[in-house]
Amino acid sequence: DLQAAGLLAAAHQRGLLVPGDLSVVGSDGSVVATMTAPALTTVAAPLDELARTAHRLLRSLVAGEEVPPHTTLLPELVARSSTAAPHGPSGGGASGVGPEREARRSERRSM
Questions:
Q1: Do 12 and 40 meet the contact criterion of CB atoms below 8 Å apart?
Q2: Cβ distance 5 to 36 under 8 Å?
Q3: What confidence tens digit (pLDDT) does each residue in 59-109 have?
Q4: DSSP alpha helices (H): ranges in the chain?
Q5: Of 2, 24, 84, 101, which one's alpha carbon is 20 to 30 angstroms from that of 33?
Q6: How far apart, in whole angstroms, are the C-alpha atoms of residue 40 and residue 38?
Q7: How many other C-beta atoms lie within 10 A of the C-beta of residue 107?
Q8: Please, are residues 92 and 86 in contact by the beta-carbon 8 Å criterion?
Protein backbone atom coordinates (compact mmCIF):
# COMPACT_ATOMS: atom_id res chain seq x y z
CA ASP A 1 0.00 0.00 0.00
CA LEU A 2 2.86 2.37 0.73
CA GLN A 3 4.30 2.01 -2.77
CA ALA A 4 0.86 2.42 -4.31
CA ALA A 5 0.41 5.61 -2.26
CA GLY A 6 3.67 6.87 -3.78
CA LEU A 7 2.33 6.04 -7.23
CA LEU A 8 -0.80 8.08 -6.50
CA ALA A 9 1.37 11.06 -5.59
CA ALA A 10 3.53 10.67 -8.71
CA ALA A 11 0.45 10.40 -10.94
CA HIS A 12 -0.96 13.58 -9.38
CA GLN A 13 2.33 15.43 -9.97
CA ARG A 14 2.21 14.44 -13.64
CA GLY A 15 -1.38 15.58 -14.08
CA LEU A 16 -2.86 12.09 -14.38
CA LEU A 17 -6.34 11.47 -13.06
CA VAL A 18 -6.75 8.48 -10.76
CA PRO A 19 -8.87 6.57 -11.61
CA GLY A 20 -9.69 8.41 -14.87
CA ASP A 21 -6.32 7.90 -16.58
CA LEU A 22 -4.87 5.24 -14.32
CA SER A 23 -6.22 2.74 -11.78
CA VAL A 24 -4.03 1.97 -8.76
CA VAL A 25 -4.26 -1.07 -6.45
CA GLY A 26 -2.12 -1.70 -3.37
CA SER A 27 -1.55 -4.83 -1.38
CA ASP A 28 -1.54 -5.12 2.40
CA GLY A 29 -4.84 -3.70 3.48
CA SER A 30 -2.91 -1.28 5.67
CA VAL A 31 -4.27 1.90 7.18
CA VAL A 32 -2.31 3.84 4.52
CA ALA A 33 -4.95 2.80 1.99
CA THR A 34 -7.59 4.82 3.83
CA MET A 35 -5.45 7.97 4.06
CA THR A 36 -4.73 8.57 0.39
CA ALA A 37 -6.66 10.75 -2.02
CA PRO A 38 -8.35 9.04 -3.70
CA ALA A 39 -8.78 6.23 -1.21
CA LEU A 40 -6.67 3.27 -2.34
CA THR A 41 -8.15 0.00 -3.54
CA THR A 42 -6.17 -2.79 -1.90
CA VAL A 43 -5.85 -6.55 -1.70
CA ALA A 44 -5.95 -7.35 2.00
CA ALA A 45 -4.55 -10.50 3.53
CA PRO A 46 -6.92 -12.17 6.00
CA LEU A 47 -4.61 -11.64 8.98
CA ASP A 48 -7.06 -12.78 11.67
CA GLU A 49 -7.79 -15.97 9.76
CA LEU A 50 -4.08 -16.47 9.12
CA ALA A 51 -3.31 -16.22 12.84
CA ARG A 52 -6.15 -18.60 13.80
CA THR A 53 -5.10 -21.13 11.16
CA ALA A 54 -1.43 -20.99 12.20
CA HIS A 55 -2.43 -21.46 15.85
CA ARG A 56 -4.68 -24.42 15.02
CA LEU A 57 -2.02 -26.10 12.85
CA LEU A 58 0.69 -25.57 15.46
CA ARG A 59 -1.47 -27.09 18.19
CA SER A 60 -2.17 -30.08 15.93
CA LEU A 61 1.55 -30.55 15.25
CA VAL A 62 2.41 -30.35 18.94
CA ALA A 63 -0.30 -32.95 19.65
CA GLY A 64 1.27 -35.26 17.06
CA GLU A 65 -1.66 -35.00 14.68
CA GLU A 66 -1.37 -34.88 10.92
CA VAL A 67 -1.79 -31.52 9.27
CA PRO A 68 -2.40 -30.75 5.62
CA PRO A 69 0.78 -30.01 3.63
CA HIS A 70 -0.74 -26.80 2.25
CA THR A 71 -3.34 -24.35 3.44
CA THR A 72 -4.83 -21.69 1.22
CA LEU A 73 -6.30 -18.48 2.58
CA LEU A 74 -7.97 -16.14 0.13
CA PRO A 75 -7.28 -12.40 0.20
CA GLU A 76 -10.04 -9.82 0.08
CA LEU A 77 -10.33 -7.12 -2.55
CA VAL A 78 -11.25 -3.87 -0.81
CA ALA A 79 -12.49 -1.67 -3.65
CA ARG A 80 -12.17 2.04 -3.06
CA SER A 81 -12.01 5.07 -5.33
CA SER A 82 -8.53 4.57 -6.88
CA THR A 83 -9.87 2.12 -9.46
CA ALA A 84 -12.45 2.23 -12.22
CA ALA A 85 -13.61 -0.02 -15.03
CA PRO A 86 -11.45 0.22 -18.16
CA HIS A 87 -12.59 2.66 -20.82
CA GLY A 88 -13.45 1.55 -24.32
CA PRO A 89 -11.26 2.42 -27.30
CA SER A 90 -9.97 5.94 -26.75
CA GLY A 91 -9.19 6.83 -30.29
CA GLY A 92 -5.75 7.87 -29.11
CA GLY A 93 -2.43 7.08 -30.67
CA ALA A 94 0.23 4.79 -29.30
CA SER A 95 -0.23 6.29 -25.84
CA GLY A 96 -3.89 5.28 -25.80
CA VAL A 97 -4.86 8.79 -24.70
CA GLY A 98 -7.88 10.08 -26.56
CA PRO A 99 -8.45 13.73 -27.47
CA GLU A 100 -10.83 14.34 -24.53
CA ARG A 101 -8.33 13.09 -21.97
CA GLU A 102 -5.49 15.01 -23.59
CA ALA A 103 -7.57 18.21 -23.39
CA ARG A 104 -8.24 17.60 -19.67
CA ARG A 105 -4.54 17.01 -19.05
CA SER A 106 -3.62 20.24 -20.85
CA GLU A 107 -6.17 22.16 -18.77
CA ARG A 108 -4.78 20.74 -15.51
CA ARG A 109 -1.19 21.51 -16.49
CA SER A 110 -2.02 25.13 -17.28
CA MET A 111 -3.62 25.69 -13.86
A1: no
A2: yes
A3: 999 999 999 999 999 999 999 999 999 876 654 444 455 555 566 556 655
A4: 2-13, 47-62, 99-110
A5: 101
A6: 6
A7: 10
A8: no
